[in-house]
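User: I'll paste a sequence; please echo it back and then give the predicted structure.

Assistant: Echoing your sequence first, then the prediction.
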Amino acid sequence: VIKKVLIANNGVAAVKAIRSIRRWAYDVFADERAIQFVVMATPEDLRANAEYIRMGDVIVDVPGGSNNHNYANVTLIVELARLHGVNAVWAGWGHASENPLLPDSLAKSTPPIKFIGPAGPPMRALGDKIGSTIIAQTADVPCIAWNGDNIMAQYDRTTGCLPSESYKAGSIKNAAEACDASQRIGFPVMIKASEGGGGKGIRMVSDAAEVANAYRQVCGEVPGSPVFIMKLSTNSRHLEVQL
């Protein structure tokens, strides 16, 4: 039974979570306070008199600064969850929400603490761009052309990992391979770092002469990350829905 939830997020995300759960609690139990909320508050959020802090039942001061000191700090979140005896943690989106160490660590607590979201293995499997594409095309989900579009593999549901040989087959290892893959896929293409994000480790290439330099730039922006190449979908839009 979930009676107390730690909100491991701030701002609009935290407000939406608390409002939605309280509305649901009122509709189901006729008591919007059936579930209590522990909220994390940085000095910056306190100074801003953030709305989600006013909505919380228990307010916990956490360090300010970049999110690795607070909302993305898995160790801190787990410690606070244990200290305040919560039954579940809601991380929302951003921050620690896509870090599989969070659900893994909460599950190992005594007693286990529920992570409101996917478990660690599927999060680990789908959080990687190369791995998630291989999983999708193995499940017959239509995928845009890319250098590994002929690879089929089943992931380990316990660890969330693909067979290493399948993952390696989907990775571009050097500039020569990048040129060959781009020619096969057809320009324009996107050269992407599997561990990139936020505009880092991604280059659009429209000509074979640009491939080698773009490949090196991607590798330099996200050192150590596997790289893959995908056909650029032009004149397209996408819609993201947060669940």
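The chain has a mean pLDDT of 95. The chain is about 40% helix and 15% strand.
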